[in-house]
Amino acid sequence: MAQGLPQNMLVSHIVARESSQMASIYSHAHVVLSADRSTDSACGIFHDRGVRTSRVINLRGMAGVTAALLYSYTRHFFTTSPYENEPLCRRGWAFQERQLARRILHYTSLEMCFECKESTISEEGIRLTSQHTKSLRELLQNPPSSLSCELDNWSRLVTEFGRRRLTKLKDKLPAMSGLAKIYQDRLGGPQYVAGLWSNALVRGLAWSSSDGWSPFDCYTGPSWSWPSYDGLISSSAGSGSVEIARVAAWSVTLQEPVNPFGEVTSAWIRLTGPVVPLTPRTDRGRTGNAPRLCWVRTPYSKTANSQCFLDHNKYLESGAYRDWDMRIMPLHRVALPQGGHSHVRGEPPATSEYFALVVRVFNAKRGAEAVIRRVGYMMLRDDTEDMAGMIDNKHNWTTMTLV
Length: 403
Fold this sequence. Notes:
The protein has helices at 9-19, 22-28, 73-77, 92-100, 130-133, 137-141, 147-161, 177-186, 201-205, 313-318, 387-392, and strands at residues 32-34, 54-59, 62-68, 104-107, 112-115, 120-122, 127-128, 192-193, 196-197, 207-210, 232-235, 242-243, 246-254, 264-274, 276-280, 293-297, 306-310, 326-335, 352-362, 371-381, 397-402. The protein is α+β, with helices and mostly antiparallel strands. It has a domain at 191-403. A hairpin with an 8-residue loop joins strand 16 (293-297) and strand 17. The protein starts with 8 loop residues before the first helix and ends with a strand.
Protein backbone atom coordinates (compact mmCIF):
# COMPACT_ATOMS: atom_id res chain seq x y z
CA MET A 1 0.00 0.00 0.00
CA ALA A 2 1.15 3.58 -0.69
CA GLN A 3 -0.48 5.26 2.30
CA GLY A 4 1.25 8.27 3.80
CA LEU A 5 2.79 9.61 0.55
CA PRO A 6 1.86 13.00 -0.99
CA GLN A 7 -1.51 12.89 -2.69
CA ASN A 8 -0.48 13.67 -6.26
CA MET A 9 -1.98 12.02 -9.28
CA LEU A 10 0.64 9.28 -9.49
CA VAL A 11 0.22 8.23 -5.89
CA SER A 12 -3.56 8.36 -6.22
CA HIS A 13 -3.36 6.00 -9.18
CA ILE A 14 -1.03 3.61 -7.32
CA VAL A 15 -3.25 3.53 -4.25
CA ALA A 16 -6.33 2.86 -6.37
CA ARG A 17 -4.54 0.12 -8.32
CA GLU A 18 -3.21 -1.60 -5.19
CA SER A 19 -6.47 -1.33 -3.25
CA SER A 20 -8.30 -2.93 -6.18
CA GLN A 21 -6.09 -6.02 -5.70
CA MET A 22 -6.83 -6.52 -2.00
CA ALA A 23 -9.61 -9.04 -2.59
CA SER A 24 -7.29 -11.27 -4.61
CA ILE A 25 -4.30 -10.89 -2.27
CA TYR A 26 -6.00 -11.60 1.03
CA SER A 27 -8.53 -14.19 -0.12
CA HIS A 28 -5.80 -16.28 -1.80
CA ALA A 29 -3.20 -15.97 0.97
CA HIS A 30 -2.36 -19.28 2.65
CA VAL A 31 -2.14 -17.52 6.03
CA VAL A 32 -2.25 -13.85 7.06
CA LEU A 33 -0.14 -12.52 9.94
CA SER A 34 -2.07 -10.01 12.01
CA ALA A 35 -0.27 -7.52 14.29
CA ASP A 36 -3.36 -6.99 16.46
CA ARG A 37 -1.63 -5.04 19.23
CA SER A 38 -0.03 -2.50 16.88
CA THR A 39 -1.52 0.96 16.75
CA ASP A 40 0.23 1.82 13.47
CA SER A 41 2.68 0.43 10.92
CA ALA A 42 5.70 1.43 13.02
CA CYS A 43 4.82 -0.76 16.02
CA GLY A 44 5.71 -4.07 14.42
CA ILE A 45 4.40 -7.53 15.17
CA PHE A 46 6.55 -8.55 18.17
CA HIS A 47 6.69 -7.04 21.62
CA ASP A 48 7.70 -7.85 25.19
CA ARG A 49 4.57 -9.22 26.79
CA GLY A 50 6.14 -9.97 30.16
CA VAL A 51 6.64 -13.21 32.04
CA ARG A 52 3.68 -15.27 33.19
CA THR A 53 3.44 -16.31 36.80
CA SER A 54 4.93 -19.79 37.15
CA ARG A 55 5.99 -22.29 39.82
CA VAL A 56 8.11 -25.42 39.82
CA ILE A 57 6.14 -28.36 41.14
CA ASN A 58 7.04 -32.00 41.73
CA LEU A 59 4.71 -34.66 40.43
CA ARG A 60 5.00 -38.35 41.16
CA GLY A 61 7.42 -39.78 38.65
CA MET A 62 8.15 -36.31 37.25
CA ALA A 63 10.51 -33.90 38.94
CA GLY A 64 10.90 -30.19 38.35
CA VAL A 65 7.78 -29.53 36.25
CA THR A 66 7.19 -25.85 35.59
CA ALA A 67 3.53 -24.83 35.75
CA ALA A 68 2.59 -21.48 34.20
CA LEU A 69 -0.59 -19.54 35.00
CA LEU A 70 -2.89 -19.44 31.99
CA TYR A 71 -5.12 -16.52 31.15
CA SER A 72 -8.62 -16.73 32.54
CA TYR A 73 -11.00 -18.76 30.42
CA THR A 74 -13.76 -16.26 31.20
CA ARG A 75 -11.84 -13.67 29.19
CA HIS A 76 -12.45 -15.81 26.13
CA PHE A 77 -15.90 -17.02 27.05
CA PHE A 78 -17.47 -13.59 27.41
CA THR A 79 -15.96 -12.09 24.27
CA THR A 80 -16.58 -12.98 20.66
CA SER A 81 -12.83 -13.27 20.11
CA PRO A 82 -9.60 -12.94 22.11
CA TYR A 83 -8.57 -9.94 20.01
CA GLU A 84 -11.74 -7.86 19.60
CA ASN A 85 -10.38 -5.12 21.90
CA GLU A 86 -6.96 -4.94 20.25
CA PRO A 87 -5.97 -1.72 18.41
CA LEU A 88 -6.08 -3.38 14.98
CA CYS A 89 -9.79 -4.12 15.43
CA ARG A 90 -10.45 -0.37 15.47
CA ARG A 91 -8.67 0.36 12.19
CA GLY A 92 -10.73 0.66 9.03
CA TRP A 93 -8.29 -0.79 6.50
CA ALA A 94 -7.80 -3.92 8.62
CA PHE A 95 -11.50 -4.78 8.51
CA GLN A 96 -11.62 -6.25 5.01
CA GLU A 97 -8.20 -7.83 5.47
CA ARG A 98 -9.58 -9.97 8.25
CA GLN A 99 -12.87 -10.73 6.50
CA LEU A 100 -11.15 -11.85 3.30
CA ALA A 101 -8.42 -13.99 4.88
CA ARG A 102 -8.95 -17.75 5.09
CA ARG A 103 -6.50 -18.28 7.96
CA ILE A 104 -5.05 -15.72 10.34
CA LEU A 105 -2.27 -15.91 12.92
CA HIS A 106 -3.03 -13.20 15.48
CA TYR A 107 -0.29 -11.56 17.53
CA THR A 108 -2.25 -9.95 20.38
CA SER A 109 -1.14 -8.08 23.47
CA LEU A 110 -1.25 -11.23 25.61
CA GLU A 111 -0.89 -14.24 23.35
CA MET A 112 -0.97 -15.69 19.85
CA CYS A 113 -4.16 -17.12 18.34
CA PHE A 114 -4.84 -19.04 15.16
CA GLU A 115 -8.16 -18.41 13.40
CA CYS A 116 -9.72 -20.29 10.51
CA LYS A 117 -13.24 -20.98 9.28
CA GLU A 118 -13.85 -23.75 11.82
CA SER A 119 -12.67 -22.14 15.05
CA THR A 120 -10.09 -20.08 16.87
CA ILE A 121 -7.48 -21.59 19.19
CA SER A 122 -5.18 -19.69 21.53
CA GLU A 123 -1.59 -20.65 22.27
CA GLU A 124 -2.67 -21.88 25.69
CA GLY A 125 -4.98 -24.41 24.08
CA ILE A 126 -8.36 -22.78 24.57
CA ARG A 127 -10.53 -23.40 21.52
CA LEU A 128 -13.44 -21.24 20.56
CA THR A 129 -15.79 -23.22 18.33
CA SER A 130 -17.69 -21.74 15.43
CA GLN A 131 -20.58 -21.06 17.82
CA HIS A 132 -18.42 -18.54 19.65
CA THR A 133 -16.45 -17.24 16.69
CA LYS A 134 -19.21 -17.09 14.07
CA SER A 135 -18.34 -13.93 12.17
CA LEU A 136 -18.93 -12.16 8.94
CA ARG A 137 -15.97 -14.04 7.46
CA GLU A 138 -18.14 -17.15 7.20
CA LEU A 139 -20.58 -15.30 4.96
CA LEU A 140 -17.89 -14.92 2.31
CA GLN A 141 -16.76 -18.53 2.53
CA ASN A 142 -20.21 -20.03 1.96
CA PRO A 143 -21.91 -20.24 -1.47
CA PRO A 144 -24.09 -17.26 -2.43
CA SER A 145 -27.70 -17.46 -1.25
CA SER A 146 -30.74 -15.43 -2.30
CA LEU A 147 -30.32 -11.81 -3.39
CA SER A 148 -32.18 -10.58 -0.30
CA CYS A 149 -29.93 -12.57 2.06
CA GLU A 150 -26.79 -11.38 0.31
CA LEU A 151 -27.96 -7.77 0.58
CA ASP A 152 -28.59 -8.32 4.29
CA ASN A 153 -25.07 -9.69 4.65
CA TRP A 154 -23.62 -6.71 2.80
CA SER A 155 -25.49 -4.41 5.20
CA ARG A 156 -23.96 -6.28 8.14
CA LEU A 157 -20.50 -5.72 6.70
CA VAL A 158 -21.14 -2.00 6.27
CA THR A 159 -22.49 -1.74 9.82
CA GLU A 160 -19.42 -3.44 11.30
CA PHE A 161 -17.12 -1.32 9.16
CA GLY A 162 -18.78 1.77 10.66
CA ARG A 163 -17.25 0.87 14.03
CA ARG A 164 -13.75 1.30 12.59
CA ARG A 165 -11.72 4.48 12.20
CA LEU A 166 -9.66 5.76 9.30
CA THR A 167 -6.69 8.13 9.30
CA LYS A 168 -7.82 9.50 5.95
CA LEU A 169 -11.56 9.97 5.69
CA LYS A 170 -11.46 9.71 1.91
CA ASP A 171 -10.48 6.05 2.32
CA LYS A 172 -13.99 4.97 3.35
CA LEU A 173 -14.80 3.47 -0.04
CA PRO A 174 -11.29 2.19 -0.89
CA ALA A 175 -11.06 0.45 2.50
CA MET A 176 -14.14 -1.61 1.57
CA SER A 177 -13.26 -2.09 -2.11
CA GLY A 178 -11.97 -5.64 -1.69
CA LEU A 179 -15.18 -6.79 -0.05
CA ALA A 180 -17.23 -4.90 -2.63
CA LYS A 181 -15.41 -6.70 -5.43
CA ILE A 182 -16.24 -10.07 -3.86
CA TYR A 183 -19.87 -9.12 -3.29
CA GLN A 184 -20.40 -7.94 -6.83
CA ASP A 185 -20.17 -11.56 -7.93
CA ARG A 186 -22.31 -12.79 -5.03
CA LEU A 187 -25.04 -10.30 -5.96
CA GLY A 188 -25.14 -11.26 -9.62
CA GLY A 189 -22.81 -8.66 -11.10
CA PRO A 190 -24.58 -5.32 -10.44
CA GLN A 191 -22.78 -2.00 -10.77
CA TYR A 192 -21.35 -0.41 -7.64
CA VAL A 193 -22.94 2.97 -7.00
CA ALA A 194 -20.84 4.79 -4.38
CA GLY A 195 -21.39 2.06 -1.80
CA LEU A 196 -24.81 0.86 -3.00
CA TRP A 197 -25.78 -1.71 -5.64
CA SER A 198 -27.53 -0.90 -8.91
CA ASN A 199 -29.95 -3.84 -8.60
CA ALA A 200 -31.16 -2.71 -5.15
CA LEU A 201 -30.79 1.08 -5.02
CA VAL A 202 -34.07 1.93 -3.29
CA ARG A 203 -33.31 -0.68 -0.65
CA GLY A 204 -29.76 0.65 -0.30
CA LEU A 205 -31.01 4.20 0.23
CA ALA A 206 -33.08 3.12 3.23
CA TRP A 207 -30.41 3.25 5.94
CA SER A 208 -30.81 4.61 9.42
CA SER A 209 -28.03 6.45 11.21
CA SER A 210 -26.72 6.70 14.75
CA ASP A 211 -23.87 8.34 16.67
CA GLY A 212 -23.08 10.93 14.00
CA TRP A 213 -22.03 14.38 15.24
CA SER A 214 -21.32 16.49 12.17
CA PRO A 215 -20.71 16.05 8.43
CA PHE A 216 -17.19 15.37 7.20
CA ASP A 217 -15.03 18.34 6.24
CA CYS A 218 -14.05 16.60 3.01
CA TYR A 219 -16.06 14.78 0.34
CA THR A 220 -16.21 11.03 1.05
CA GLY A 221 -19.37 10.19 -0.88
CA PRO A 222 -22.86 11.47 -1.72
CA SER A 223 -25.20 12.36 1.14
CA TRP A 224 -27.52 9.46 0.24
CA SER A 225 -24.88 6.76 0.71
CA TRP A 226 -23.14 5.45 3.84
CA PRO A 227 -19.57 6.63 2.97
CA SER A 228 -20.70 10.20 3.69
CA TYR A 229 -21.64 9.34 7.28
CA ASP A 230 -19.39 9.35 10.35
CA GLY A 231 -21.07 6.77 12.52
CA LEU A 232 -22.96 3.49 12.55
CA ILE A 233 -25.66 2.77 10.01
CA SER A 234 -28.12 -0.07 9.67
CA SER A 235 -30.40 -1.13 6.85
CA SER A 236 -34.09 -0.41 7.31
CA ALA A 237 -35.25 -2.52 4.38
CA GLY A 238 -35.69 -6.27 4.20
CA SER A 239 -37.14 -9.05 2.12
CA GLY A 240 -40.72 -8.12 3.05
CA SER A 241 -40.49 -4.46 2.03
CA VAL A 242 -42.49 -3.06 -0.90
CA GLU A 243 -40.80 -0.26 -2.81
CA ILE A 244 -42.67 3.00 -3.40
CA ALA A 245 -40.05 5.30 -4.92
CA ARG A 246 -38.34 4.54 -8.22
CA VAL A 247 -34.80 5.26 -9.42
CA ALA A 248 -34.86 7.18 -12.69
CA ALA A 249 -31.09 7.58 -13.18
CA TRP A 250 -27.77 7.79 -11.38
CA SER A 251 -24.19 8.80 -12.05
CA VAL A 252 -20.85 8.27 -10.29
CA THR A 253 -17.50 9.89 -11.09
CA LEU A 254 -14.54 7.85 -9.85
CA GLN A 255 -11.29 9.34 -8.62
CA GLU A 256 -9.42 6.56 -10.45
CA PRO A 257 -11.29 4.33 -12.94
CA VAL A 258 -8.75 1.55 -12.29
CA ASN A 259 -10.71 0.77 -9.11
CA PRO A 260 -14.49 0.91 -9.73
CA PHE A 261 -15.06 0.24 -6.02
CA GLY A 262 -12.79 3.04 -4.80
CA GLU A 263 -12.97 6.75 -4.06
CA VAL A 264 -15.55 8.89 -5.85
CA THR A 265 -15.34 12.61 -6.56
CA SER A 266 -19.06 13.14 -7.23
CA ALA A 267 -22.30 11.19 -7.52
CA TRP A 268 -26.01 11.85 -7.92
CA ILE A 269 -29.18 9.81 -8.00
CA ARG A 270 -32.57 10.80 -9.48
CA LEU A 271 -35.65 9.50 -7.66
CA THR A 272 -39.33 9.59 -8.54
CA GLY A 273 -41.89 9.33 -5.78
CA PRO A 274 -44.28 11.21 -3.50
CA VAL A 275 -42.62 14.27 -1.94
CA VAL A 276 -44.26 16.46 0.70
CA PRO A 277 -42.94 19.36 2.82
CA LEU A 278 -41.76 18.83 6.37
CA THR A 279 -42.42 21.53 8.94
CA PRO A 280 -40.34 21.58 12.16
CA ARG A 281 -42.13 22.43 15.39
CA THR A 282 -40.64 25.75 16.47
CA ASP A 283 -41.92 25.37 20.04
CA ARG A 284 -40.25 22.01 20.65
CA GLY A 285 -36.64 20.97 20.23
CA ARG A 286 -35.01 17.64 20.54
CA THR A 287 -36.25 14.98 22.92
CA GLY A 288 -34.32 14.27 26.10
CA ASN A 289 -32.80 10.83 25.46
CA ALA A 290 -32.63 10.97 21.67
CA PRO A 291 -30.24 13.77 20.68
CA ARG A 292 -30.96 13.49 16.93
CA LEU A 293 -34.75 13.32 17.28
CA CYS A 294 -36.80 16.42 16.57
CA TRP A 295 -40.53 17.08 16.25
CA VAL A 296 -42.00 17.80 12.82
CA ARG A 297 -45.28 17.72 10.91
CA THR A 298 -46.32 16.86 7.37
CA PRO A 299 -49.54 17.94 5.62
CA TYR A 300 -50.79 14.41 6.30
CA SER A 301 -49.96 14.16 10.00
CA LYS A 302 -52.77 12.96 12.27
CA THR A 303 -50.94 14.05 15.43
CA ALA A 304 -49.38 17.28 16.63
CA ASN A 305 -45.92 15.77 16.54
CA SER A 306 -44.13 13.30 14.29
CA GLN A 307 -40.62 12.06 14.95
CA CYS A 308 -37.77 12.93 12.60
CA PHE A 309 -34.24 11.60 13.00
CA LEU A 310 -31.56 13.94 11.70
CA ASP A 311 -28.29 12.32 10.68
CA HIS A 312 -26.03 14.58 12.75
CA ASN A 313 -26.32 15.90 16.28
CA LYS A 314 -24.82 19.21 15.20
CA TYR A 315 -28.02 20.02 13.32
CA LEU A 316 -30.00 19.78 16.55
CA GLU A 317 -27.52 21.62 18.75
CA SER A 318 -27.53 24.69 16.52
CA GLY A 319 -31.27 24.64 15.88
CA ALA A 320 -30.55 25.62 12.28
CA TYR A 321 -32.81 22.87 10.95
CA ARG A 322 -35.86 24.98 11.88
CA ASP A 323 -35.04 27.34 8.99
CA TRP A 324 -34.40 24.63 6.42
CA ASP A 325 -36.54 23.79 3.42
CA MET A 326 -37.08 20.11 4.31
CA ARG A 327 -39.13 17.49 2.52
CA ILE A 328 -39.69 13.76 2.77
CA MET A 329 -40.00 10.98 0.22
CA PRO A 330 -41.30 7.55 1.34
CA LEU A 331 -39.05 4.85 -0.12
CA HIS A 332 -40.74 1.61 0.92
CA ARG A 333 -43.28 0.09 3.27
CA VAL A 334 -43.28 -2.99 5.47
CA ALA A 335 -46.40 -4.74 6.75
CA LEU A 336 -46.74 -4.79 10.55
CA PRO A 337 -47.95 -7.80 12.56
CA GLN A 338 -51.66 -7.82 13.27
CA GLY A 339 -52.92 -7.15 16.75
CA GLY A 340 -50.74 -4.16 17.48
CA HIS A 341 -51.79 -0.92 19.11
CA SER A 342 -52.36 2.52 17.66
CA HIS A 343 -50.20 5.51 18.51
CA VAL A 344 -53.19 7.79 18.03
CA ARG A 345 -56.35 7.63 20.12
CA GLY A 346 -59.37 6.75 18.02
CA GLU A 347 -57.32 5.44 15.11
CA PRO A 348 -57.16 1.74 14.17
CA PRO A 349 -53.84 -0.05 14.70
CA ALA A 350 -51.20 0.59 12.08
CA THR A 351 -50.93 -2.00 9.33
CA SER A 352 -47.75 -0.72 7.66
CA GLU A 353 -44.56 1.18 8.47
CA TYR A 354 -42.81 3.38 5.92
CA PHE A 355 -39.19 4.47 5.64
CA ALA A 356 -38.88 8.01 4.31
CA LEU A 357 -35.84 10.04 3.33
CA VAL A 358 -35.60 13.49 4.87
CA VAL A 359 -33.92 15.89 2.46
CA ARG A 360 -32.90 19.52 2.52
CA VAL A 361 -33.41 21.65 -0.57
CA PHE A 362 -30.84 24.31 -1.46
CA ASN A 363 -31.18 27.02 -4.11
CA ALA A 364 -34.85 26.33 -4.74
CA LYS A 365 -35.18 29.37 -7.00
CA ARG A 366 -37.11 29.70 -10.20
CA GLY A 367 -34.92 28.93 -13.17
CA ALA A 368 -32.16 27.31 -11.10
CA GLU A 369 -31.73 23.62 -10.46
CA ALA A 370 -32.13 22.87 -6.79
CA VAL A 371 -29.41 21.05 -4.86
CA ILE A 372 -30.92 18.36 -2.65
CA ARG A 373 -29.11 16.46 0.08
CA ARG A 374 -30.16 13.82 2.55
CA VAL A 375 -30.18 15.10 6.16
CA GLY A 376 -32.09 12.35 7.98
CA TYR A 377 -34.92 9.85 7.90
CA MET A 378 -38.38 9.14 9.32
CA MET A 379 -40.29 5.99 10.19
CA LEU A 380 -43.94 6.67 9.34
CA ARG A 381 -46.99 4.59 10.27
CA ASP A 382 -50.45 4.70 8.77
CA ASP A 383 -52.00 5.36 12.19
CA THR A 384 -50.04 8.61 12.62
CA GLU A 385 -49.94 9.72 8.97
CA ASP A 386 -52.47 9.54 6.16
CA MET A 387 -50.05 7.52 4.05
CA ALA A 388 -52.67 6.51 1.50
CA GLY A 389 -53.51 10.16 0.91
CA MET A 390 -49.84 11.08 0.64
CA ILE A 391 -48.97 8.34 -1.83
CA ASP A 392 -52.17 8.27 -3.90
CA ASN A 393 -52.20 12.03 -4.55
CA LYS A 394 -50.65 12.32 -8.01
CA HIS A 395 -49.78 15.96 -7.38
CA ASN A 396 -47.27 14.84 -4.73
CA TRP A 397 -45.34 12.73 -7.18
CA THR A 398 -42.21 14.40 -8.52
CA THR A 399 -38.63 13.66 -9.52
CA MET A 400 -35.74 15.00 -7.50
CA THR A 401 -31.96 14.65 -7.84
CA LEU A 402 -29.93 14.03 -4.70
CA VAL A 403 -26.20 14.70 -4.42
